[in-house]
Structures are given as structure tokens and as C-alpha cells.
Amino acid sequence: MHEDFLDELGELALGSRLKRVSEKMLADAAKVYEHFGMAIQPKWFTLLALLDKKHTVSVVEASEYLGLSQPALSQFCRQLSAKELINVAADKSDSRKKVIQLSAKGRVQVQVMKPIWSAVNLAAIELSEQSNNQFYQALLLFEASLAEKSLLQRSQHHFKQLANTQLSEEQINIIEFKPTLASYFDVINSQWIEEMFVLEEVDKRVLRYPQKNIIEKGGKIWFAEHPSLGIVGTCALLNKGNGAYELTKMGVLKTARGLKVGEILLQHVIEQAQSLPLNCLFLLTNAKCEAAIHLYEKNGFVHDKEIMDSFGRSYQRCDVAMRWTQEDFATNL
What we know:
Layout: H1 5-9, H2 14-35, H3 45-54, E1 56-58, H4 59-66, H5 70-82, E2 86-90, E3 98-102, H6 104-129, H7 135-148, H8 151-163, E4 173-176, H9 182-196, H10 201-208, H11 210-213, E5 220-226, E6 230-241, E7 244-252, H12 261-273, E8 280-285, H13 290-298, E9 301-303, H14 305-311, E10 320-324, H15 326-332
């Protein structure tokens, strides 16, 4: 392995060393978002955090707050607007000025990211505290610490502590649908569907307008709230008529997988379904969702050809249909 030539240049190459560390940190931050299933670029972080704190700012104010050029900030705004995470509009008091704020989807996305930011913050503090007070020496130690254990690895460690894998069922709060939670339904389900498949038109209609397409048609939606991570899961019952209900759009954020949130949520939905005028409870899925299918089987669902024949065409990705049977559910408890 070659010697690091920047060591020979010393403080003369401080800017280059800082740039190298900065690029490493940003690359690791991108891996953190990727690890938790979020299509977010680290360069957007400061603007999203600013809008979360200030709510509404002009483009000029944001540029000054963040120390960014207006062309750079405008580029970020276009990118975030394309992701439907911010709204950009003319200032009501001065139409020449543009003001920006988080969209409903953006507010949800920020709430989802905050536990991750907390973990990254702890990881960054941990890296910083491995240094001493001499800045250059501290920087060298900081860089060595980063090479020894990356920001991703440190963030994963701290996130596990924040998530607390020993949660009891009572600590997961199940909440019924209300309009202010609609964006969570979209964000949570879009994450897992796009991770494995492609959002179909039927997905987009239901996820963007859950009240119209589920609630107002006699269906139900629930959300799972983690004590430190916030809203992390959701599941719906879609009224198909004649006492048939489809258990659908069940998803858990990648940040909360492995905490048994899905099982707690599924069992709650099954219990609530039994209070409805229920003749048939079924679900449609894909064979690629092996972990989910195992969970369904464990909780009383069996594979059913009749369900596939009757409802399987609802989604292009559907190649598995299951019906819930109370006897199997009771046996597995």
C-alpha cells in the first residue's frame, strides 16, 4: 500500500484533506440513507432540516442561512420538488420572491428521517470525541477513526440502541386512520413496493388518496407507532363488498424491520376485522415476499386458488393469494 502523500504535505494540504474527509462523510451518509431504504441525497439534508425548523423561508433567506449560492439552492429545490418533498410558491406579499416549505409528504419524510439523523449525530460525536483539541492532529485522528469504523457502521450501532429491539407489544401504539396521517400511508408503502417491484397505477391511486379509495368505501386503515421512531408501519382493510375484505398495503419502514412491528400490526388488524360483517378475509401478494408470506401463514392465512381466480388480477405482480382461517390462526397462537 502506498504512503499517503498528504501526510508529507502536512498542513499545506489541509484543504485537500478536509475535502477528502468531507467526500467520505457524504458518501457514508448516502449509504446510511440507502441502508434504511430512503432515496434521499445527503446534500439535501441542511435544506430539509432548515424547512423543518423555520417552516417557510424565501429562496434568498435559505441561501443565506445555509451559505449556499442561489443557483445551487435552486437546483436543490427543483430536485426536492420533483420528489414532492417541498412546495415552491410566490410570496403572497411580494410575487417576485419565491418561498419554500415542506409538503405534507416532506413533513412525513423528515419525521421518518429524524431518528436516523439522531443516530448519525451520535456517530459523528463519537468520531469527533476520539480526537484531541489540536485541530490538525484531531483531524488526522478523526480520519483514522472514520477508516476504522465508518459512519454507516457507527450509525447502525446507535440506531439499534435508539430502536430498542426488546420492545413489548404494549409499547407499539396502534392508531386508526385520520387525514393528518395519510402521507405516512403513502411513504411507508411506496418504500417497500419500490424496493421490490414497480408502483402500479392502482397503487398510486390508493396511496395518494386513501380516504377516498379505502375509508369512504367502508374500509379501515391502521398505523403502528414506535415510542422513539414514530409512525413506522401501516395496514389496511379494503371493502370488496358482500362481506369480503382484502388485507392490503401492509408495510413497515426499513428502519423498524426486525422489531416485530409487522406481526403486532397484523394481529391487531385480524382482531379488528372480526368485528366487521366479515365473510371472507384475504390478501394478495407475490412469492418474492417470502418473509411476509411466512408471517401470514403463522397468523392463519392459507393459500387459496379460488381467491386467486376471483381477485388475483387486481395487481400485475400478484402470484399468491391467501385466505384467513380462524382455526389455523388459533392453532398458531
